[in-house]
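ESCALATION

Customer reports they have been waiting on this structure for their group meeting. Please prioritize. Original submission:
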Amino acid sequence: MKVPAWKKITDEVGGPILTTVDATLKKKESPNLNTSLIPHLALYHLDACLNASIEANAKAQPSCAISLIRQCVESLTIIDLGLQEAAYKDPILEKWHAGQRTTGEVRKFLAQDIWPRYKTGIWNESWEEYFSNLAKAVHPYAHYSPELMGWQMSILKYEGGNRLLVSTGSQSAEPVKATRIALLQTIVVWTLGRILLANATGPEVCAFQEPIEQLRLAIGSSKLLFKSKQWADELMPHVFFHPGREWRDD
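Update from on-call: job pushed to the front of the queue and completed.
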């Protein structure tokens, strides 16, 4: 199967983006060693979960792969906060670490004070709308739920009416389901890249501007996305395409 443009770009820039974010977090560390460590750990968690999600997807374990994407999205919030100035981030990080602020509450602070300068998401929606929708969409995969269970089932054949031929198990993956998860993994990388560009400067950061924009265009034009700006739609376990419709991206 032909490798989509968004996958090629991600394979090229994903690792360098993670490395540059880590270096940028070090430059923005405050004297408070406790709060300075937290964003680094969030980045390492994102890296580990993303790699584990890719591996699970390759092993035809889509429910595991998508639950790990949820972990990636939660990590993005703390990484985003860690890229802000110490006077702003440290009090929030301290309360988050003490259990006095949830990750969702941290996003509210970012939405009010930081995100207006991030411009738009993948389409023309505000960054708050984009990220909030993405966070809400992956929320059902925090625990084992009926929604998560749906990713364990592969629909082999639609037999009309309410009749479906369904397969379960680790070797029953649908190619379209695996590709959709790979696209969501790409969206995590793109989001991290955009957060980096919004909060750092310098030649090593500016070098990502063109590939991140190319990645946005490739993601936005994917045949796998409904372009409804409702990420819960993008993350439904089962998606049906009209007979003969080509869902594979170029």
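Sent to customer with the following note: The beta strands are 153-158, 164-168.
Escalation resolved.
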